[in-house]
Design goal:
The complex is a heterodimer of chains A (199) and B (427). With 199 residues, chain A is mainly alpha-helical. Chain A has 8 helices and no strands. With 427 residues, chain B is mainly α. Chain B folds into 5 domains: 25 residues; 109 residues, Cytochrome Bc1 Complex, Chain D, domain 2 (Orthogonal Bundle), CATH 1.10.760.10; 76 residues; 132 residues, no CATH class; 43 residues, no CATH class. In chain B, 56% of the residues lie in helices and 1% in strands. Chain B has 21 helices and 2 strands. In chain B, a hairpin with a 4-residue loop joins strand 1 and strand 2. In chain B, helix 2 crosses helix 7 and helix 14 packs across helix 15. Classes of the chains: A mainly alpha (199), B mainly alpha (427).
Chain lengths: 199, 427
């Protein structure tokens, strides 16, 4: 009688505790033949390449089809005003939809939903306010300089070259323009039509 | 006696030059007044200065430390006259070109980056800014309160995570207490019986425990639990729900997403374009952490790790070394024989991040929220309604379109358009 209970007790203790898994450990696997990738996965370490990564940049001199190559270097800020122009014509839907979404995700956290430099991080005193889009000098900043700023960053702002592609950069800038146009009083509407014409 | 004279002369010279140089700096520096909170006119100027400072200066300068440009505190002692400082602010390139020694020194010390010209600022406005920079407290007394607020909420999140640990400690304590009380009562019982003259037979503890009725009932309950446990454990094989490994940097989603309200896609840029949501590189961290050097919970330690990985030199405000790989531990691992694509779900399907990842904005440590089992996938495919009318792609599904029009079908689920076919995910 006693022995039986002792055995049951030991089985119970083992059975109830052996499946406990610390949150620091991944789950147990049973015959994971097809679960583990044979090939190296994107983002996984890689012993073959020198830098230890599987994700590699394209070799120097090669270029993806349709990829836009920005012709200016970091120090060409002044030059960008005359060299870089907007090649796209976006519809209102694109600007108000995708453009607004890109702006909300990438820019609004500092520059504010309206572009006034009062984003949420600024309001809670975590990041210094950027200049407002709605007043000079940014109000009449050349398109090329805006694009150059997205490519290389400026002052406290970092580069957004890796987050946004060529089209998305101009789309965001178009949305910024629409914000600037919306904030202007009706008296300067002639300028507004001008900016749409140049596009 | 004879040899002392030249030494004296030299000493005197040194003293005189020292005095002259000291007096010249103290006389020539820009005089910025201290403002008391009671000085209404001064406070007014400081407030005007704050507005100008925030609109024009903060994208390059901080008060107490070097960021893009040098720290502004003490700038009044570094320049020899107000006129020159104002000239610098209005057009720094002009002052550098004029050959001014200090202007050139500042230019060279700050990576030769040109300070933007502010011709619109008058000398009085520049002084207003300096008054604010010297007396930031009088213009915005509310600032201190908000920062302590942030600290308090961060502490709250920490307590939440630790509460489970306290519960286990409490349970252990109660068990120990119960055992202690049990031994005390049995000993007392024995003593009482012995006093009464009874002959007490020594029963071994093990026998006592195992022949106890409550114990038998407990074992029965345990056996039932065991059955559930075996099934649960078997089902859990190959799954990692709740997996929350230590990461190389103690990155807190609760802070970045919950408190700071940064969008998920700001860092996970690939989520709408690619199979992978993508883990951000250090350059995305540095967008903010060039400026933010200290966090509310871990101070400077964790952010210093980013600088180390990115090769950023805080003192020089420059990237000085090659970046290193941050070896994050991957949490969500699907078996290799399952295909999953983020852009398909997020961009096309419009599924919220939280549907599969839980309330990430509350996670201090990132963890796997969903079981990521096949049943879990299939269940969602069966229940989720496809935005059939809004997406032109689905106009070719003639039968469903007709049925929707007739009203014989109320909604089209992912299953209806092949979302539970094997080769949809396994190929």
């Amino acid at each position: 009688m006693l022995k039986q209970y002792q055995i049951i007790f030991i089985v119970l203790v083992l059975g109830l505790t052996s499946c406990i898994r610390s949150s620091k450990q991944p789950g147990r696997q049973y015959m994971p033949d097809m679960a583990e990738a044979v090939a190296y996965e994107a983002g996984s370490p890689n012993p073959i390449f020198k830098d230890g990564k599987t994700n590699q940049l394209a070799p120097a001199g090669s270029m993806a089809r349709g990829k836009y190559i920005y012709p200016l270097s970091d120090s060409d800020y002044e030059k960008s005003a005359s060299v870089i122009t907007d090649p796209f014509t976006f519809t209102k839907d694109e600007i108000e939809g995708e453009g607004k979404n890109l702006f909300t995700v990438n820019c609004a956290i500092c520059h504010g939903e309206k572009g006034d430099g009062q984003g949420y991080l600024v309001q809670i005193n975590k990041f210094p306010p950027p200049p407002s889009y709605l007043s000079e000098p940014l109000l009449s900043l050349a398109d090329g300089k805006r694009y150059h700023t997205l490519m290389y960053g400026k002052n406290m702002m970092g580069s957004y070259a890796s987050q946004l592609n060529h089209r998305e950069r101009w789309l965001v800038l178009s949305y910024v323009k629409s914000l600037q146009a919306a904030s202007k009083p009706a008296a300067v509407s002639s300028e507004k039509t001008d900016s749409t014409k140049t596009k | 006696m004879y040899s002392c004279k030249p030494i004296r002369k030299i000493l005197a010279l040194i003293v005189i030059t020292l005095f002259l140089s000291l007096s010249s700096t103290s006389f020539a520096a820009v005089a910025v007044p201290d403002v008391a909170a009671t000085d209404a006119a001064g406070v007014e100027r400081a407030k005007a200065g704050m507005a100008l400072y925030k609109a024009n200066c903060t994208s390059c300068h901080a008060i107490d430390r070097k960021v893009v440009g040098p720290a502004l505190a003490g700038v009044w002692d570094r320049w020899e006259s107000e006129a020159k400082l104002v000239a610098w602010v209005q057009n720094s390139s002009k002052l550098i070109a004029s050959g001014d020694a200090y202007a050139n020194k500042v230019f060279n010390e700050n990576n030769k980056s040109v300070m933007s010209a502010f011709p619109q600022l008058t000398a009085e406005q520049v002084m207003d800014i300096l008054i604010y920079v010297k007396n930031p407290g009088v213009a915005e007394p509310a600032k201190a309160a908000t920062s302590t607020d942030a600290g308090a909420t961060a502490g709250g999140a920490e307590n939440k995570g630790a509460s489970a640990w306290y519960i286990w400690a409490l349970v252990a304590f109660l068990v120990v207490l119960a055992l202690l009380l049990w031994t005390v009562t049995s000993k007392l019982d024995k003593a009482v019986r012995e006093k009464a003259g009874e002959v007490v037979e020594e029963i071994p503890l093990a026998k006592k425990v195992f022949s106890n009725k409550t114990f038998k009932v407990l074992m029965l309950i345990g056996s039932i639990l065991l059955v559930f446990n075996i099934f649960g454990g078997a089902i859990d094989l190959g799954r990692s729900q709740g997996y929350a490994p230590d990461q190389p940097i103690k990155f807190s989603h609760a802070l970045h997403v919950g408190q700071n309200k940064i969008e998920c896609q700001y860092c996970h840029t690939g989520v709408e374009k690619s199979k992978h949501a993508s883990i951000p590189g250090t350059q995305i961290c540095m967008n903010c952490h060039k400026y933010v050097q200290q966090g509310p919970k871990y101070g400077k330690d964790e952010i210093a790790k980013i600088y180390d990985y990115a090769g950023w030199d805080v003192d020089k405000q420059k990237f000085t070394q090659a970046p290193k790989n941050i070896e994050w531990v991957k949490i969500h691992n699907l078996p290799d024989h399952v295909y999953f694509n983020h852009s398909q779900h997020v961009k096309v399907g419009g599924v919220k991040c939280q549907t599969c990842h839980g309330k990430v904005e509350e996670y201090e440590v990132m963890k796997q929220f969903a079981p990521l089992s096949m049943g879990w996938c299939i269940n969602c495919h069966r229940q989720t309604e496809v935005k059939f009318a809004e997406n032109k792609y689905y106009s070719v599904f003639q039968k469903y379109q007709d049925e929707l029009k007739k009203g014989t079908k109320s909604k089209v689920t992912v299953e209806d358009i092949g979302g539970t076919e094997c080769q949809k995910c396994h190929y």
